[in-house]
Amino acid sequence: MTDLPASGIHGHPHRRIDGRAKVLGTATYAFEQDVDAATYLYPLQATIARGRVRRIDTSAAEALDGVVAVLTHLNAPRLADTDDKEYAVCQSDEVAFRGQFIGAVVAETQEVARHAASLVSVEYDEQPHQVVLPDDDKGLDDPDEVNAGYPSDTAQGDVGAALADAERLVDETYSTPMEHNNPMEPHTSVAIWSAGSGDGDASLLLYDSTQGVHSVRRTLAPVLGLKPERIRVVSPYVGGGFGSKGLPHAHNVLVALAAQLTGGRPVKFALTRQQMFTLVGYRTPTIQRIRLAADGDGRLTGICHDVIEQTSRIKEFAEQTATATRMMYAAPNRRTSHRLARLDVPIPSWMRAPGEAPGMAGLEMAMDELAERCSLDPIELRVRNEPDIDPDSGKRWSGRHLVECFRTGAERFGWADRGEPGARRDGDWLVGLGVASSTYPAFTMRGSTAEIAYVDGRYVVRIGASDIGTGTWTTLSQIAAEALGVEVEGVRLELGDTDLPMATVEGGSSGMASWGSTVVAAVDAFRDRHGKDPEEGATARAETPEHADRKKYATHSFGAIFAEAAVHADTGEVRVRRMLGVFDVGRIVNPPTARSQLVGGMIFGLSMALFEHSVMDARTGHVVNHDFAEYHIPVNADIADLDAIWLDHEDTNANSLGAKGIGEIGTVGSPAAVANAVYNASGVRIRDLPITPDKLIAQSGSTKTGSPQSGHM
Amino acid sequence: MEATITLTVDGRAETVTVDTRTSLLDALRDRLGNTSPKKGCDHGQCGACTVLLDGRRMLSCLALAVAHDGADVVTARGLADGDRLHAIQEAFIDHDALQCGYCTPGQVCSAVGMLDEAAGGSPSHVTADLTAERGLGDLDDDEIRERMSGNLCRCGAYVNIVAAIREVVGTTVDAQATTAAR
Amino acid sequence: MKPFDYQRATTPDGAVALVSDRPGAVYLAGGTNLVDHLRLGIVGPDLLVDVNRLPLDEVGATEDGGLRIGANVRNSDLAAHPAIRRDYPMLAQALLAGASGQIRNAATTAGNLLQRTRCVYFQDVTTPCNKRDPGSGCTAIGGYTRYHAILGASEHCIAVHPSDMAVAMVALDATVAVLGRNGERSIPVEELHRLPGDHPERDTVLEHGDLITAVVLPPPLGAGWRCTYRKVRDRASYAFALVSVAAAIRVEDGRVADSRISLGGVAHKPWRAVKAEDALRGAVVGDESFAAAAGAELAAASPVEGNEFKVPMARRTIVSVLRELAGQSGESR
To answer: Which of A303, A392, A454, B136 is deepest in the core (most CB within 10 A)?
Structure first.
C-alpha cells in the first residue's frame, strides 16, 4: 500500500472485485464470448492513400475451402445513414486513407480468412495525397469548435503589446507526434445478425470491446437502420481503451455488415495490432507555438498558445490542445488558437487526456524555460502565477490546491536537491530533476440511469456502465454499499450490457462522478420507496441528479508531477529513475485502484515523453512502425520508483460525490515533468517529443568523442 | 493441411485436430476453449499470450501447435489449485497489480516461469556478476523489472507487479531459510 | 498464411535431404522469427521441416579448448551456461540483451543467427522491398530509416541485421558448422552474413538446404583481456539496438596490446570493426585514441536521411565502451 498523506486515504481500500477472474484469465473479453458456429473475419484494406477502387477480384478467395463470404463495396448491404464517413464502410469505391476497409473475408477459421484475404487482388485509380502536417498555418481551417465543445480561439486583453513589452520572454515551438492508444486488448467485435421476418425487425447482438455499450448502440442504430432497442451490446470486460474504444469505429460496422451474409452465424473480428494503427483513432500530431511574456519577477503578462493539428479529410476531430492554457495561469493578456489541416489520413480521435496531454506538454515545458529566464525556481514561478479565479470563465474554482500539491511534493521528492542543468553526475549518467503542473476538467455527465433491486437478500445494482480497467466493478459496488449501508459483499453490480439502464461513456475521467452520483440517487430513491427492510424483488431507478451549484464554479482537478531523469552522457539514453505525482482530485473512493489509475496515467505520460511516435510515411500514407517492436511503450524495466499520492480535499462544489476524476490527470503533466528533468540533467532542451537518444546526441553538438565537457553531454 | 495432436492443458489431456498453420495460442483459444492466454499482438512483441510450455515461459503466438504435439501446457487458469490461487495470483490481487486484466494471465505465467529461472541461477541483462552463483534471494527490484520486461502492460501496472513478485520472492526465500534451519 | 505441410526431422542428414529436395521447404527451429513471417506473409513455404527434436542441443568442449554450441541450444540456456558466463561473458551479455525471457526460451542459437531484418518495410507486404521481393525496390530509402544501416549498405537495401548474439560471436571469431547436401563445412560467423549488394534477398552465404548444426567458439581470450557488450536502445529492455558494441581489449603498460570490436545495428551483417582494431593496436589508452579508432572505422559510414545520428552514436558508444574496459569510466578526463 502506498504511503499516504497524513490527511487520510478517503475511501476504504477494497481488493479489485474482478481481480480473481483476471489473474486466472477467466474474465471473458469480447472475442472470448461463447458463441455457436463462429466464423472469423479478416478485413481487406486499401493500399493507397487516396483514390478509387477500380477493380477488385475476389474469385480466388471465394474459391478457397472454408470461405463463408467475401464482402466488398460491390455486394455490401446498404447502410441507412452514410453521413458520418467513418461509418460509411464499403458503401462506395472511394478510398480516403491508406488502410481503410475496402472489404472483408469471412471464413470457418482465422487461418483461412487471413489467407483468403491475401488472395484478393485490387486495382486502384490513385490520386495525389497529402498526409503530413504542415508546419505553418497558411490555408489551414479554423474549426467551429474543438473537442468537448470548446471554442477554437479565445482572446483577452492585448497579447501583442504584452509580448512587445515583456521583460522576460519565451517564444518557442513545441511539437508532439502522432500517437496511438494501443490498449492491450485489440478492438474486437463479435456480431450476430438475426434477419427477423423482413419487416424491419432485424436485430443485432454485438459482443464488443468498448468504453460504452450504450454509445455503441446509439451511434450504430441509425447507421444500420435499426431501432436502438434492436441492438444489444455486451461488454463485461474490456482490455483497456484509453479513449480509442470511446466511440464505435469502422470495424463495428464492417462486422455488422458481414454478419448479414452468414445466415445468422456469429462473426468474430479482432483487429491485428497493425490494423489498430489505422482504424481506431489516434492522437493528432501537434505543432504548438507558445509565447510567454513576464515581468522581471516572473509574473506573466501575456500567454499565447497557437496550435496546428490535423484531422482526416472525411471526418473532423479537432483536439482541444490549447484549452488548458486558457485556465492554468493568471495573466491579463491571453490568446489561444487551433488550426486544422485536413489530410488524407486516418481519423483522429480521443486518446487519454485529448487536448490537455499534448497542450500541457508544450505549456509546461515553456514554463520551465520561463523560470530559467527569470532565474526562478520552476515551482516558485507557478506559485507567482496562481490565479484566484478561472481566468477563462471568470468563475470561482470549485477547489484548486495546486500550490499545496507542489509544496507537498517538493518536500517528499527532495526538490531542494535540484541543481543547475548538467551539474549532477552519477558515473556515466547525468541526473536531473523536473517538475510540471497537471490539470484536467472535472466533468459530470448527465443522462445515466441506475436501478437498484433487492434479490435473494442482496442489492443488485444495474447500470450500463463499463470497466476498462479503471476499477468500476469495485468502486461502483463500494459507492452503492456505502449508500445502502451494507457491506460490499451485500451488493451485486451488473454493468457492460445495453439491457441494463443507460449509462454515459467511460471517458473524460467522468465515470465515477457521473455513474457514482447516479447510483447514490438510485439508492436514495430505493430507500424512499422501500425503506430499510425491502421486500424481495423491490426495485427503484434514478437518473443522474442535477447538481445546481456546479455551474457557479470552474471545476478542475490539479496535480504536481515530479521526475528524476538520468541521461547517459555518451549514448544519450534516457531513464526515469523516480517520479511522484501529488494530486488534488477530490474524493478517492478506493485508494488502491485510484493509485493504479494515477500511476498508470503517469506512465502513459512518461511514455509520451520518451517513446511514443507513430511515423507517418509521406509517400505511402501509412504509419510504418505499426507494432510493439517499433512503436515503443514502456516495459517494466523503464519504470522504477514511481508513486502517486493525493490531498484530502473532497470537492462537493464539483459534484455531490466530491470526486473529480482520476483517469487522465496522471498523464497530463508527466511528459513535461520528464522533459524538464531531462533538460536539468543534460542541459539539452528537446522541444519535439519524444525525447530519444538520437535527438539528444544531435542537439548536444560538436563533442567529437562523446566525452562530456563540464558535465554536459 | 491438418494434423491431430495431443496436448496436456492445465493437467488435462486434450486431442485436437489443427491446421498446420494454427498457433498454439489459437489452438488453445479457438479450438480448446481456453481463453486464459490472450492475443495482444500475435507477433511476439507483447507477452500477453505467455504460457508455461513444458515448464518454461513461452509465447504461444509464436509456437505452431503442430510442432508441440505431446507438450504440457499450463495457462494462468491452470496455475490455481482448485479454488486456491497460486501465490503469484494472490499477490497480484493484493497489490492491485492489474487494471484492465488483459495482459495479466501472461504476466502471471511469466512471473511463475521467471521465478523458476531465477531459482535455477539464470542471470539477466542487469546481473552485474555473471559468474556468481545466484538464486531467488538475489532477485532485487531491478532484476524483477528486467526479467518481466517481455510482458507489456499499457495500463501501467508495473510498479504493483514488481511489488507483488517481490512479496512472493520474500516469502519463498524466508520459507526456504526456515526449512534449511530445521 | 499459405497452407503448408509439416514434417518432423529425425536426423540432421534427413532434414537436409528433405529441404534440399524441395525448393519451397524451410527449417523450423524456435519459430520466433519464422512463425511471425508466415503470418505476415513475408514468406510462403510449402513445407516446414521441424528440426527442434534433432540432437543438437549440447554445449561441449572442443579439443583445442574452445566450445561447441549445438544449433538448437536455446538462447536462455546458452546465456546461463556456466562455461559461457565464465569464459565468454560478452556472449552471455549479448544474449541477455536480446528480446525477452520468453523469446530467449524459444529462440535457438542457429535461429538467432539466421533471423531476418526488422526493417519495417521488409515486414510489411504492402510496400516494395528488394529483400522480400527482389527487384521491387527499396522503400526504406527515403523513408523511415532510424534502424537502418550506415555501413556497407547498397542502393538496393539498407536493412540491418538485428541480432545481438551474432555481434558478440563475430568479435569472438566464432565459426558455424554447416551440414549441406555435400557434407559438412565450417564458415566464420563473420563471413556467414552478406552485405546486400545486388542481392539483398540473400542474407547469408548459405545455400538452400544448408543446416547450421553448431557454433564453434575458439578458446577463451584469456588473462589480461576485458570484454563487454553494450546495447544502445530507446527502451531499457525488449528493444532492438540503435547501435551496439561488442568489445574486448587487452591493455599493457597503458597501451592497447590487442582488441576485438564489432558493431550491431549499423549494417546488413554484424560488423567487425577491423579498422578500429588496427588503429588501437599500440595506442595509449584514453579518449583520444579511442575516438580516433572509432573515427577510423566510421570514416566509411554513409548514413541516409534520418539515421545520420548513428554515426556520432556509434562513435560515442565505442569510446564509452573502450573507456569502461580500460578502467577509466567515471574518472576525470
So the answer is: A303
Cell of A402: 495546486
Domains of chain A: 33-128+184-240+246-279 (3.90.1170.50), 131-182+282-393 (3.30.365.10), 395-444+547-713 (3.30.365.10), 446-544 (3.30.365.10)
pTM metric for this prediction: 0.98
CB crowding C202-220: b at 16 or more within 10 Å, else e? ebbebeebbbbbbbbbeeb
Chain-chain contact of C232 with A693 (C-beta, under 8 angstroms): yes
pLDDT at A575 (0 to 100)? 98
Instruction: Using the Cα atoms of residue A700, residue A705, residue A710 and residue A713 in order, give the sign of their dihedral.
Output: positive
Report the alpha-carbon distance of residue A577 to residue A643 in Å, rounded. 12
**A543 tagged catalytic:** no
Question: Residues C34, C37, C42, C45: what is their CA dihedral angle, to the nearest 10 degrees?
Answer: 40
Q: Does residue C89 sit at the B interface (CB-CB below 8 Å)?
A: yes
Question: Helix, strand, coil % (nearest 5) of chain A?
Answer: 30, 25, 45
* Partner residue facing B156 (CB), from A110, A273, A603: A603
A94 vs A57: CA distance, rounded Å: 16
Show the cell assigned to A286: 501537434
Residue A349: other Cβ atoms inside 10 A = 25
For B59, which residue in chain C has the nearest alpha carbon? C102
Answer whether A481's CB lies under 8 Å from A487's CB.
yes
The bridge status of strand A231-234 relative to strand A267-270 is unpaired
pLDDT tens digits along A401-421: 999 999 999 999 999 999 999
The amino acid at residue B175 is: A
- Amino acid at residue number A204: L
Instruction: Dig out the grid coordinates for A86 from the structure.
Output: 467513418
Collect all residues of chain B within an 8 Å Cβ-Cβ radius of residue A273.
40-43, 45-46
Residue A652: is its pLDDT beyond 80?
yes
Residue A146: beta bridge partners? A150
